[in-house]
Write a structure and sequence with these properties.
CATH class of the largest domain: Mainly Alpha
Mean pLDDT: 85
Low-confidence stretches: 1-45
CATH topology of the largest domain: Triger factor/SurA peptide-binding fold
Strand order of the largest sheet: 7-6-9-8
Length: 344
Amino acid sequence: MRFRLFAVAVVVTGTVVGSAQVASHAPTAVKKVPAGAAAGQAIPTELKAKPVARVNGAVLNDIDLVREMFSMFPYARQHNGFPKSLEPEIRKGALEMIIYDELLYQEARRRNLDVPPAQVNRAEKEFRKQFANKAEYQQFLKVEVGGSPAAMREKIRRSLLIEKMSRIEVSSKAAPTLAEIKAYYNKNAKQFEHGELIHIQSISIIPPKGASAEVLKEAKRRAEEAVKSAKAAKDYREFGLLAEKLSDDDYHVNMGDHRERGIGDFPPEIVKAARGMKPGHVSNLIQLGGNYTIFRLVAHTPAGKTSFEKAKAKISADLQKQKTEQLRSALNKKLQKNAKIERL
């Protein structure tokens, strides 16, 4: 499940009022983009609460739906809408999610589940921290719940109940046992075999194609200065900050980090140099065509097999994700079996 209580930037009638979200149809007002809006189209600032589904008589509206669409595809905020090619699938997925949430809420009520008032108080307190001041919060209440603090509190309580129901039936049952993790490792032994791997951070000076002799000379000067600074870097962070500042390659946005990869993904010059280095050491200047590169070796792993201890965490996460999806799908199917659901 993706219940994030306080995560999404919100805009109400054109005014930023905070960074708050309470579950999928709890109190937040995202920038009001209609379901069919695409980048470049005009975006109205208001959505009317038009019904999009009924779940055992409970009405879910287009504000709920668009909020969930933004949760699933947050990049829409940057592009003023959803891509036309993706919008139908995003809308469909969001609709199914808010229906699922409603079914969870109704099942929690049927079981007489509740959350302690102290927990609701804490969640409400955290929610209010997302707003810059009291006036913004009051504006949010006015738009979202007609100004009613009680209605707001009930929405927070609802979100917590959905989380609780999901935790009981899904997340608490999804964690694999150590025996299951070991069984997966043994059954899929070849998956953990690997060739020679290297992990580096790089700083690259890349002159433009067709550059003049003067520009090429300046690029070499920059590269030589970069080598001096790189060799003085004491650790991953210092080298990474230099990469962000000096490097011309695409990795500069990620501390110069290439992540661990097979040697086939690197030029032979880098592989040869890495084989003669120790982790933490910085290479001399390497010229690759017209470009210059310096790299810091993070790790060099000979060909072999990843040990169970090193593989355990990832196997556990993968199995838990798989089991979570299976449990959620089964629960959704069970809840829908006797429910009356109308998709409008």
